[in-house]
Design brief:
about 230 residues; alpha/beta; Rossmann fold; seven-stranded parallel β-sheet; globular
Length: about 230
């Protein structure tokens, strides 16, 4: 396990640096096997990263992106990470944006769909971008969720998670990639902003219990190198 911390003065500097790293990951994927696949977090913090990346001079027809997690809502819903990614990559002509959920958002059908999708994608991700909440959740692996342990099940690529309590800003069940699948990547990035989340991160580094702070399951995974990106 291990991590490197990259600090930036502001979100613009963070977005510029990380978008450059993701563009290089795509180029490396092209060189290896002709394509690139990225798993990307939703939320407000990373959208500027993706918008900047979408302006990179890449053959976007060879790039696939998917959410690391998704709310069980219709694809057109304002809370949908799929919708957010499609908007962020609007300038990336030809890119493929995969959904973790079925169009109507049904939870059980979406869980089956996500597992089928990932079973057909056995190669490593070229890069994964994760965020973190002040409760230590990452992707949709929320502390206190009844099904949280399934997110750490080495036999599962994806699972349904029902946060408890449901976040008031997005009170929906979720589909999340499991830790096993998130770690199957050539580059793993964790993006956080603000002093409060920096404190949570440092606590998770000191305390490896993933049930208290699921992000610890990423930070302390054997053989994993996490690139931490932080700005105030």
């Amino acid at each position: 396990m291990g991590w490197t911390l990259h600090e930036y003065p502001d979100t613009g500097s963070l977005a510029e640096a990380l978008s450059g790293e993701l563009a290089r990951s795509c180029a490396d994927g092209f060189a290896r096997d002709g394509r690139a696949v990225l798993a990307l977090a939703g939320g407000r913090t990373p959208w500027p990263v993706y918008e900047r990346l979408a302006r990179a001079a890449l053959d976007w027809s060879r790039v696939t992106v998917m959410p690391t997690d998704e709310r069980c809502v219709p694809h057109g819903h304002e809370a949908s990470n799929l919708r957010g990614l499609q908007a962020a990559f609007a300038a990336a002509d030809g890119i493929r944006v995969e959904a973790l959920t079925v169009p109507g958002g049904d939870c059980d059908a979406s869980e089956r769909h996500a597992r089928d999708l990932l079973s057909g994608l056995r190669r490593r991700f070229d890069a994964v971008v994760l965020g973190m909440g002040i409760d230590g959740h990452t992707a949709s692996l929320f502390p206190g969720a009844a099904r949280l342990a399934r997110g750490f099940d080495p036999a599962l690529d994806a699972c349904r998670i029902d946060p408890d309590p449901l976040p008031p800003e997005a009170p929906f069940p979720r589909i999340s990639l499991g830790v096993r699948r998130l770690l199957r990547t050539r580059a793993l990035h964790l993006v956080i902003t603000g002093v409060e989340k920096r404190d949570v991160l440092e606590t998770a580094i000191a305390d490896p219990d993933p049930l208290r702070r699921p992000v610890a399951g990423i930070l302390h995974a054997p053989g994993t190198q996490v690139r931490l990106h932080w700005c105030p």
